[in-house]
């Protein structure tokens, strides 16, 4: 006997309210059986928005104000900061001071790190830098050493330090001064050189020749740098975007009117940067690989960048590969499973050294790549499915049952529906409908291009006791919809966000006492 009559009597009321019951069926059944119970089993709607609830973090459905949805597959965020491109670098060499009035070329910095190759620093502000000097003379008395570096200034005053250098004990005895902070010092080199002016005198004021004179910075580190940074390539790591075309859409085809690969760049570096596409390829579910063809690939895209009077601002550049500038529409006729890309960034691609650019510690650029599929297309024998829990194991003493399906279709396409019951191992044990299932006509299109809500379709399926015993082993039911818009129109049609395939399933159990 059914374990809780009260529970199922309550279910009768719920089923009636959800439009899945049929009072006349119940009344007719009561004449043939001791007890007839109507129970709702499934009430679900398959819409684009409901599918979006089940996609992963890198996939979303964007719906505009008119309800037109775009499926967006996002790549991993690519970002590079100033420290990634111009890292803080420990200064591992002594900067020689060749005489009381001498210069040193900043081009020698390229021997320390490639980040400074072909650079011309025209203005900079130090950050977290300390400087000290290595000094030696041959006198047997203290020597007063005073040095000025005109290119280092703080509040308009040049960097000047005075040190007392003791006598040496031997040739290896080099005096290291205490370190001095260069934080916030302004550095304005002339012709990319650094100059030194010093005096070395004994107690009587007489000049003393220096045996060793050198400056050492602990780090090359700047809060702000202005100048020309050379023609260089920033190697931006590539990525792969997995294109699911909904995990539920397992076969068939969907021809898109305007598929796109969209790229958005944020850039706060103050110098020209241009794209260099190393790879942009599309892989199908069968393993075929297509290369995109576009003038964007050949010519690149220049990023917008802030000017010298716009330090701290972020400029945005957006572009996409679409049907008008590439072969992407032809590529998406096939079933694309992933898009792989590798984009390098070329700084100062024209090698124009007359351009003064800048960067600071907050400078960065980031690249967002997405595959955008506006759901305006032609559907050709597309299969969409949904799997739901299904449990009749507690039903006892049932002579027979009648399943009642109420199905509605809002899509501008014919829909063929089948329901398959699976056991605990996901093996199919029953197909509810005979032959190929139920065929629903396409919803009619209105003058505005949207469908007009039509009637629900009702289908009854008789389930005798032996078949019911098999179905009681089921734990899940798969609702499968075969969608085809080519029976309706050869034009691209929008699959609006509020379109749905509505499934309701109820059962009337005929029970003997």
Distance between the termini: 7 Å
The biggest beta sheet, please? Answer: 8 strands, antiparallel
Number of domains: 3
Uncertain ranges: 1-33
The shape, in one word, is elongated
Query: Helical element count?
Result: 7
Label the structural class: mainly beta
Radius of gyration from CA coordinates:
38 Å
Helix content: under 10%
- The mean pLDDT is 82
- Give the number of DSSP strands: 37
Range of strand content: over 45%
What do you see in this structure?
The strands form 7 sheets. Strands 7, 8, 10, 11, 14, 15, 18 and 27 form an 8-stranded antiparallel sheet that branches. Strands 21, 29, 31, 32, 33, 35 and 36 form a 7-stranded antiparallel sheet that branches. Strands 2, 3, 4, 22, 25 and 28 form a 6-stranded antiparallel sheet that branches. A hairpin with a 5-residue loop joins strand 31 (414-422) and strand 32 (428-431). The chain has 513 residues and is mostly beta strands. It folds into 3 domains: 5-54 and 379-511; 71-82 and 233-374; 88-228. Residues 1-33 have low confidence and may be disordered. The chain is built from 7 helices and 37 strands.
List the helices and strands and how they pair.
Layout: H1 5-17, H2 23-30, E1 35-47, H3 48-52, E2 59-63, E3 69-74, E4 78-81, H4 82-85, E5 89-90, E6 95-96, E7 101-105, E8 120-126, E9 130-137, E10 143-154, E11 157-165, E12 175-176, E13 180-181, E14 186-187, E15 193-201, E16 210-217, E17 219-220, E18 222-228, E19 232-234, E20 239-242, E21 249-256, E22 260-267, E23 273-284, E24 289-291, H5 295-299, E25 315-321, H6 328-331, E26 336-347, E27 357-360, E28 364-374, E29 376-389, E30 398-409, E31 414-422, E32 428-431, E33 438-440, E34 457-464, H7 465-471, E35 476-484, E36 493-494, E37 500-511
Antiparallel strand pairs: 1-37, 2-3, 3-28, 4-28, 5-17, 6-16, 7-15, 8-14, 8-18, 9-12, 9-13, 9-16, 10-11, 10-14, 10-15, 18-27, 19-26, 20-26, 21-29, 22-25, 22-28, 23-24, 23-26, 29-35, 29-36, 30-34, 30-37, 31-32, 31-33, 31-35
């Amino acid at each position: 006997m059914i374990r809780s009559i009260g529970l199922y009597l309550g279910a009768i009321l719920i089923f009636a309210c959800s439009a899945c019951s049929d009072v006349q069926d119940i009344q007719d059944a009561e004449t043939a059986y001791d007890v007839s119970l109507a129970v709702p089993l499934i009430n679900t709607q398959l819409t684009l928005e409901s599918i979006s609830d089940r996609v992963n973090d890198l996939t979303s459905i964007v719906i505009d104000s008119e309800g037109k949805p775009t499926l967006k597959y996002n790549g991993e965020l690519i970002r590079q900061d100033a420290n990634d491109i111009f890292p803080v670098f420990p200064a591992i060499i002594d900067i020689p001071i060749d005489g009381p009035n001498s210069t040193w070329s900043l081009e020698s910095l390229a021997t320390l790190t490639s980040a400074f190759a072909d650079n011309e620093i025209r203005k900079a502000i130090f950050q977290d830098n300390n400087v000290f000097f290595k000094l030696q003379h041959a006198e047997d008395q203290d020597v007063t050493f005073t040095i000025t570096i005109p290119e280092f200034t703080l509040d308009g005053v040049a960097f000047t330090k005075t040190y007392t250098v003791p006598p040496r004990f031997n040739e290896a005895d080099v005096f290291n001064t205490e370190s001095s902070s260069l934080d916030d010092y302004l550095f304005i080199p002339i012709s990319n050189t650094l100059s030194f002016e010093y005096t070395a005198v004994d107690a009587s004021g007489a000049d003393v020749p220096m045996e060793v004179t050198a400056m050492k910075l602990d780090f090359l580190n700047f809060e702000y740098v202005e100048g020309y940074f050379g023609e260089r390539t920033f190697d931006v790591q590539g990525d792969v975007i997995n294109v699911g075309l909904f995990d539920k859409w397992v076969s068939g085809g969907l021809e898109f009117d305007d598929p796109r690969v969209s790229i958005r760049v944020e850039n706060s570096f103050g110098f020209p940067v241009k794209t260099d596409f190393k790879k942009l390829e599309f892989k199908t579910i069968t393993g075929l690989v297509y290369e995109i063809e576009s003038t964007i690939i050949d010519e690149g895209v220049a990023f917008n960048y802030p000017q010298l009077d716009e330090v701290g601002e972020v400029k945005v550049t957006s572009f996409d590969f679409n049907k008008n500038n590439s072969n992407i529409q032809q590529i998406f006729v096939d079933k694309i499973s992933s898009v792989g890309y590798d984009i390098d960034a070329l700084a100062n691609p024209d090698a124009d050294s007359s351009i003064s650019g800048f960067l600071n510690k907050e400078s960065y650029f980031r690249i967002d790549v997405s595959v955008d599929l506006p759901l305006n297309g032609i559907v050709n024998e597309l299969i969409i499915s949904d799997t739901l829990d299904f449990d009749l194991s507690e039903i006892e003493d049932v002579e027979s049952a009648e399943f009642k399906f109420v199905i509605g279709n809002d899509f501008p396409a014919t829909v063929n529906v089948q329901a398959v019951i699976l056991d605990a191992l996901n093996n199919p044990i029953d197909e509810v409908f005979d032959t190929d299932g139920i065929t629903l006509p396409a919803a009619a299109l209105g003058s505005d291009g949207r469908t007009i809500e039509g009637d629900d379709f009702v289908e009854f399926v008789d389930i005798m006791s032996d078949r019911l015993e098999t179905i009681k082993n089921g734990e899940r039911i798969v609702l499968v919809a075969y969608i085809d818009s080519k029976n309706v129109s050869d034009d691209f049609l929008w699959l609006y966000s509020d379109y749905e395939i509505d499934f309701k399933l109820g059962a009337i159990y005929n029970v003997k006492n």
